[in-house]
Structures are given as structure tokens and as C-alpha cells.
Amino acid sequence: MNSENNTTPETHLPLHPLEFQVLLRLTEGSAHAYAVVCSIEKQQPEGKRILPTNMYRRIWRLVSSGLVEEVPGVDGDPARPRKHLGITLLGRRVAVAEATRLRSLLLHAEDVGVRPEGGARR
Amino acid sequence: MKDKPGSAWEARLFRMWLRLLPTRFGPDVNANIVSLFEDRLDECGSRTLARVGLLVRSLADALWHGLGGWLDGKKHTKTTQPTVNTPRGLGVESMLHDIRFAVRSLRKRALFTTIAVGALGLGIGGTTAMFSIVDGVLIRDLRYRDPGKLVNIWMAFPSWRGQEESLNNYWDAIDVRAVDYLNIRDHASTLSSVAAFWEAWGEGEAAVTGEGQPEALSVFEASANLFETLGVQPVLGRVFFPEEVTPEGDPARVAILSFEIWKRRFAGSRDVLGQQILLNGISFEIVGVLPEGFRLASKPFEKLPNAEAVDDGLRDIWVPLGITGCFYNCAHFLQLVGRLAQRASVDQARAEVQTLLAESGFEQIARVVPTKEIITRGFGTPLSLLLGAAAVLMLIACANVTGLLIGEAPGRQHELTVRSALGASRGQVVSLLLTESVLLSLMGAALGVVLAWLGTDAVLAIAPALPRPEEIGISGRILLFATAVGIGTGLLFGVVPALSQTKASVGSTLRVRNRSGSARLLQTTVVSAQIGLTVVLLVAGGLFVRSFVRIMSVDPGFDPDGLVTQRVTLFQRISRQQRELLVGEILRVTRDVPGVRAVSVTTDLPFPGRGTNVGLSFQRNGEQVGTTVLFRATDPTYVETMGIPLLRGRLLSDADEGDAPGAMLVSESLAERNWPNESPLGVRISFQGLDYTIVGVVGDVRQEALGIEVQPVFYVPVAQAIARTHDLDLTMVVKMSSDPVVTLAVVRNAIWSVNPDIVLHEANTMAGLVRTSEADERFRALLMWTFATIAGVLAAVGIFGMTARAVSARAREMGIRSALGADGRGLIRLVLKDGLLSATLGLVLGLVVASWASSLIAHLLYEIEARDPWTYLGAVVLSITTCTLAAYLPARRVTKIDPMEVLAEE
Which of A11, A53, A64, A70 has the highest number of chain B CBs within 10 A, making it the mutation to test binding with B? Predict the structure, then answer.
């Protein structure tokens, strides 16, 4: 994607939580959308499901922003097309930038006395 | 993205949904979305609930994210800029932006907005007003428990008319005898319960005395199970106990009040229970109060025009039914209401009641008709028809606004082109234009609701006595209806101009010219459609008006001019001699009032055609023959006072009164039916155990309404008839030569000078009664003609606008033509051509549709063919004149175009 060369990671921040989660999952390796969904849902509270159009709206934006790209993948069922997705270099940088942003936000929260329940103290 | 044969239905539906939505994603991504949906569906396995839940949520998700994405604008899909960081990132925001813009744009174009909102307001207002009436009268459930199971039961004699005909007419429906009621109640398995009631005590009038002013009330006798059958609980006290209602013998002296009487006479006091109420001098203990608005569905002929249906329930008192003596198996007096048993149909109940009636030996037809059908009987078709006409008016309003929007297109071209140039996608521009039109129509809907609110009352004022008037009004349902209609019409009239304008916005000069041609075609089509629909309304309105005029020219059979009617009732037990003296005295004092030319009394009057159908028997060719005829007991001068012509024999005279040998007049139709080609004079007839001789034949009189065929009737001297009653209940007919209001006041005082306890009620002019009987026809004609007129005005505005725009658009061409020597007339003809082409197209289309539509209303017309050539011709002439005038006025402006000015502008 050309856009990788033209933008800095910071221009993409803040990320939508779902988009950040997709990037995090893809950092572990390429996967098709359903695998990404299953993996994200495992980390979420029970019953909160990600619905197809919402998922693809996020993927579509990540792809069009050059953070995620289509990669060749093997799929068992030819009748059910599954796009395999992989994270781009820009995507990794954006994920890092978002993580940094969130971390500094968390630190700021702790500084003002807002701490996550059961979280570690500095 | 084709459906795969193996796909689950949920997946197919979801795929179709995505295809319908204008999402930002292409087919490729959509296929992936569906694939993900199928994966999720597999997780649900065969759990239907889970699968459907997923489907519903996914459909909503697609609508929110897919459509939201589309409204965000396609340009974001091509840029690297993340949508979340753009000011118009969210669909809702985008929509709010569009709304703000649309408001500004509409405010700038105040004239356009006013005309469009006015047209839409008229269309939506008319439809909403009609819908509120249709909803109240036809759609809402009756206020009984499980009202769909309730049926009314009555009977008819097949010998009177054809079976099918009887169903559609009032007068041959007859009440049920007590013996038949008990038989049906005890043996019908298709009816879980059957209750009986009747309007007791001399035509349903009883005086309530005691505390407060004496007043006339309706007293109904009811079986113990009536309220249980209807599923009505009293708001206070109880209903009747079974032992209080006796099939034979005197019932208990207990009474249940209507809510309205309780509020009015007893100020809604809870202490009313146990109090006594005096009805015709007999004391009843009050045991219960019925819920507010309780009305009882009577058999159809109780719902005649003028039958004071509006007062039903407001004056009702219920007492237990007592069936005694001859009433048990002679009199047809009970009205039955039944509740269908589980799984029993109306047809099954009818068949069973038919069998049970046959057991009684009479050749009777059973009528078992759903209660709601009876209440709304005769109103379904006319009201639906008027609702349809209102909907056509709304379509015309839509077409009108579409025409206006198309006409606006050239003026807005520049603005739209700039928007596109600044990067607005077509979707965004279409969305903007659609927001504008929906906003416009919602404003129209708001105006429409106000007009409907005012209009419903106006419509009800000219409407005949509609059933369930208390249900009619602007409610939440109606507002929802108006809003839905508003949004629907906004999309309907907005989508075509929006698509056509955005196409043109990116065009080159050449393409714009081509598009202006297609816009003109579109405009021609829209104006033609308006004219076509207007012609349909004009034809329908014309037919109804002609039918109404025809019906009003029917001779009622008497002369209503100067006739005033006045019901005279005395709720006292008086002797026969006293009664005769009283009637004589009332007639004498009335006759002496200046301005009174003649006065008579009768038991019942035509219009509303109340009266009793009674059995007569006589000898014909050595055989005893029976027939059923409408009966009137009158004083000797009645026929003369009414202006009914004497055809043969003589009138009744004073000599026929009292104990004289019975004399009788028969109407022409009765004579023709029973004694064709021979004179009925001198024939001896047996009626209620007395012998009468026919002494004269008089003209037929329309009884119920001008449009309803004459009924056979006979007249006997009133003195002989009232000799059998205990009280006095007659109607006076006074022929006046002066102002009826003043004279009637003097007449009333004169009567009270004879006896101050006489109740004088139901004063009417006969002409007014005749007019009211045609309220249905008047209502249809007036409303349809109003719709047609509004439609005509809207269509004229449409043509006017189209021609005016054509003149402006072709000013340059006209200037040059004028400079080259073309004369004014030629130029006008040139400009008129478009308008008149639309008119002609619309006219032809309208006539074709009207000829089909008029066959639908043929049964509502009186002696007018559905394809009445004069009506069609009238509609054509009116349309052509209006269209020509509407096009000619703006077309004249071409002659005022100054060629020098136009060329100088170039």
C-alpha cells in the first residue's frame, strides 16, 4: 500500500478498540476474519459478540488505511471465501503507537488516583 | 454475489439484505461478510432461537454499519485518512449535517417550500382525516371481550324477497320470538351463550321521574346473561342474577344504569346502589352501573338515518327481561346476541340456528352476522372508497411536488456541481436531496395533521350518523400513520428528482442539454400522472354528484313542504275514553294556532321509516292468504295533510273512528302486489283479530330513504289502534304556512295548555328528515367533489409551473424567433404545446383508469350508469378548460419577451 510511505503512525490514532484488537491478533500471525473474531471474543466478556458487518467495516478501514493487507492463505472450504489478512509494517507501528498512547493514558490515570481494580502499583 | 444452493435461509436473507443496502462495500467484501455470518451461524448449530437472534442482530448491524458507512461517503474508502478523524465520520452526524443544510436550503426557497408543504399538507391531511374515520369506524375493535366472537341473530321470511336481497336490506329483518330464543339458547352447540334484549315499553320511551326533572329514556329489557355474553363488567354493583329474569312471569324490579345516566342524574354517586328509580311510575331498585361508552349493537334496522343512533346508550336503563303471555310465542320482539363457541364458525352457527328455527314450523331464514359487521354495515365500502380517493389526492400532491422539484433542477444545477467538484460523492448529494424532500414531507405531514384535526370534525359534520363516533379522532395511531405517510411520500417524490439531478450535476454541456430533455420528459410524465389522477377523481365526484341530484329528485310520495313533525308522548296510564278526548283536544288546539293549515296524528312516520311490520290475512280466490306489511295508524286527515294522493275509493273519515266497522287504506304497491288487475276496494282483511274493509287506495310513499324502494303499507284509524294501548305515543304532522320555529313554539304551548305532563320531543321539519335520509349520498358527493376540486387546483398549479418554467427556459429561443418575425400567437402555441401534450396524455390515461374505477362504485350510484357519458364528457371539458387556462396564463408572457433584451444578455 502506498499509504504506508505517506503517513506517520500517529496520524492514525486513536484507533477504534476493535481495530486495535484486530491489529494485536494479526501481530501473532495472519488469519482469516473468522479466526480473528473468535480470538478477540475469547478475551471479551461472555456474550459480547462481534457482528459481521461491523467487523468488516473495521477491517475495510484498516485495509484502506494500509494497516492491514490481504495475504495468500489456505482455506478448506472453497464455497466459503475467507480473506486471509496480515498486518503491514505501518500496521505494526500504529499498533505500537496505540499501545504507547494507551499506556501513557493509563499512567496518567494512576497519577490522578484512578487505578484499575486489582491492578499492579507503580 | 449469487445465492448458493446450500446456503441456509438466514444466510440467503442476510445476503439479500446486504444487496439491498447501499453499503460502502463492494460485492467482494459483501461475500466475505456473508461468509463470516455463515461461520457465526454454524456456531449456533440447530438452535433456532439463537440463529434467528443472530440474524436479527446481524441485519441491524448491517444497517447501522453498512448504511452508516455509506453516509460517511465513499471518498473515505479511497483515501488514507481514517474516517474516525474526519468531522463527518459518523452516519448520524452526517445525517444531522444534511438536515441542517436542508433546513437552510428550504428557508431560502420560501415560495417553493410554501407551495410544496401546502400541497403535501392537503394530501396528507385528507388521507389522515379519512384514515382517522376509517380507523375509528371500521378497524378498531369493539369494546367487548373478544369481540370477534360476537354475532347478532335475527330472521327474515324468504317469501318477502330473494334470500340474498334480504341480507342487504334493512326492512325485512325481523326480531326473534321468545320461544325461538329459548330454543336457540338451550340447544345451539355452536354458540357458547345467547342473550336477548329488546327496547321495551312503547317504542323504547319511558319517563323517569322522582328526583330531578322528568325525562324520556330508553329502557331495555335484557336476559340475565347479556352482559356476560358481551364480556362487560359493571363499574359499580352487579349485573342481573338468573333468578331475577324469568322466562315466564314478572321479572324482578331491579335496574342497571348506563354510565352516562349515572353521571348525569346521580352525579356519579356510589350511594346510587339500592336507591329506587321510578320508570313510568314503577319503582326499580338500582343494582349496577355499566362502563362508560357502553353501547349495544342492535340489528341493522335500528341504525337507520334519523334513528337517534347518536343518543344510544346515553339514555339507557336496563331491566330484567320478562316474557309473558302472548309475547312468549306470538311476538317477534327479541334481538339476540351470541358468542361463538370455540372453533365454531359463523356459517356453522347460521346453519344450526336455521335448523333450530325450522323446528318451529315457520319458513324462516336465520341471519347470524358478526356484530362488528352489523355496526359497520354499509359503511365499509363508502368509507374505504373515500379513503382511496384521499390517497389518490395524496399521490397527486406527491406528483405535484415531484414536478416542482424537477422544475427547480436547472436552478440548483450550479450548486450541485460545486458540491461534486468539492468532493461530495453522488451518494452524499442524493442523501442531501432526499433529506430535503423527507423534511419537506414531514412539514407537510405536520400541516396535514393540523388540517386532519380540523378536517375530521368538518367531515363528521357533513357525514351521516356514523357508528362508533366516540372512537374517531386524532390518536397516537393516527399520528404514527401521518408520520409514516410523510416519510413514505418524501421518499416517493424525492427519489426520482434526486437521482435525475445528481446525474446531471457532473455532466458536460452537451450531456446537460440531453438531460434537460429527459427532465422535460420526466416533468411531462409527472404532470400527465397528476391530470390522469385528477380525471379519475373528477369522474368519481361527477358520478356521485349526479347520483345525488337524481336521488334528490325522487318523489317521496308526499309533499314535505311546510310539514313539521312532533312526537307527543304521555307516560301515564289513562282510559281509552280519556285518550280519545286528549287526542281530539290536542288536534283542536293545534288547528286553532295561526299559521297552522292542517294537523294530523300517526303512530309512525316515513323518514326514518320507523314502524311495525305486521301480519295481515284475507281471502283470495277462496283461500286464506297471509302477508306482512308496514302498519300506520292515523287520524282521518293524515293522508291529506301529508299530501299523499288518493288513487281510488275514499279517505278515512271521522265516521271510521272508534267502534265503527274497521276501515283501511292500502298503498298502491300493496294493492298491486295482492290484487293485480282488480280492485281491492271492499276486500275484507283480518288484522290483530279485527276485521277491516279496504275503502281506498293511496299513493306509495318512500319510507326509509328516497333511494330505497317503496314499501307496501296500510293505514287504519288511529282511534282503533290506540284503543289497545295504555299510554299515548303518537307523532303529530303539522302543515304550516308560516315560520315553523315560531309556529311550533305556539303549538307546543297550546298542547301543554291541554295537559302539562305531555312530553313533546323529536321536533323536525319533514323536508329536513327527507334531506337527512340522503346524508350518505350527500356525504359521498360532497367529499368526493371536494377531493376532485383540490386535485384540479393542484394539477392546474402543476401545469402552470411547468409552462412558466418552459417560458423562462426558452426565453432566448423565443426572443430570436420574435426577432425573426414570429407572431405572438405562434409563440404561445409553441409554448402551450408541452402543457397540452401532458394534459392530453393524462386525460387519456385518466379516462381509462376512471372507466375501470367507476365500475367499483357502480353499486353506490342511484339510477346513473357507471360509465355515464355526460359525467365523462363533463370531466373531459373541465380538465381541458383548466389545463388550457393554467398553461395559457404563463404562456402569454412569451409575447412580452423583448428580443433586444434577450440578445443583449447574450
Answer: A53
Summarised one tens digit per residue, pLDDT across range B542-595 is: 999 999 898 888 898 999 888 988 888 776 677 778 888 888 899 999 999 998
**Contact criterion met (CB < 8 Å) for A51 and B66:** no
| Alpha-carbon gap, residue A37 to A82, rounded angstroms | 13
For residue B165, the tally of other CB atoms under 10 A from its CB is 11
Count CB atoms within 10 A of the CB of residue B197.
18
Instruction: Provide CB contacts within 8 A for B483, sequence distance 6+.
Output: B442, B445
List residues bridging with A63 in a β-sheet: none
For residue B814, CA distances in Å to B520, B523, B804 come to: 18, 21, 13
Measured distance CA(A17)–CA(A55) in Å, rounded:
12
Residue of A nearest to B78 (CA): A64
Q: How far apart are CA B78 and CA B71, in angstroms?
A: 15
Residue A121 Cα distances to A99, A110, A116, B504, B869, angstroms: 19, 9, 10, 65, 96
Element (H, E) at B623: strand B623-634
d(CA B34, CA B14): 7
Q: B628 forms bridges with which residues in the sheet?
A: B615
What is the DSSP annotation of B315-383?
A: TEEEEE-B--GGGGTT-EEEEEEEEEPTT--HHHHHHHHHHHHHTTT---EEEEEEHHHHHTTTTHHHH
Cα separation, A62 vs A66, whole angstroms: 6
Whether the bond into B608 is cis, omega within 30 of 0: yes
d(CA B460, CA B557): 30
Selection from B853, B868, B869, B895 nearest residue B392 by Cα: B853
How far apart are the C-alpha atoms of B887 and B883, rounded to whole Å?
6
Nearest CB among A52, A56, A64 relative to B40 is that of A52
Which of B209-218, B339-348, B358-367, B743-752 shows the lowest per-residue confidence on average (mean pLDDT)? B209-218
C-alpha distance from A49 to closest chain B C-alpha (Å): 10
Read out DSSP for B813-882? HHHHHHHTT--HHHHHHHHHHHHHHHHHHHHHHHHHHHHHHHHHHGGG-SS--TT-HHHHHHHHHHHHHH
> How crowded is residue A35: how many other Cβ atoms within 10 Å of its Cβ?
17
Residues with Cβ within 8 Å of A84's Cβ and at least 6 positions away in sequence, in order, are A30, A31, A32, A70, A71, A72, A73, A75
Task: In whole angstroms, give the CA distance from residue B857 to residue B373.
Answer: 20
Distance from CA of B425 to the nearest CA of A (A): 18
- Residue B598's closest CA among B558, B631, B540? B558
C-alpha grid cell, residue B159: 317469501
What global pTM score does this model have? 0.63
- Which residues in B lie closer than 8 A to residue A6 (C-beta atoms)? 80
Question: What is the CA B45 to chain-centroid distance, rounded?
Answer: 53
CA B883, chain centre distance (Å): 32
pLDDT digit of tens for each residue in chain A (122 aa)?
Answer: 444 445 688 888 888 889 999 999 999 988 888 889 988 888 877 667 888 888 888 888 898 888 998 887 766 566 666 778 999 999 999 999 999 999 999 899 888 888 776 544 44
Instruction: Find, among B753, B749, B751, B731, the residue nearest to B563 by Cα.
Output: B731
Contact B445, B124 (CB under 8 A): yes
Instruction: Tell whether B573 is within 8 A of chain A (Cβ).
Output: no
Tell me if B263 sits within 8 A of B427, measured CB to CB.
Answer: no
Written as one letter, the residue type at B293 is: G
Q: Give the model confidence (pLDDT) of B290-346 as tens digits.
A: 888 777 755 433 332 333 333 344 557 888 887 765 556 666 778 888 999 988 999
Distance CA B157, CA B137 (A): 30
- Quickly count: other Cβ atoms within 10 Å of residue B203's Cβ: 16
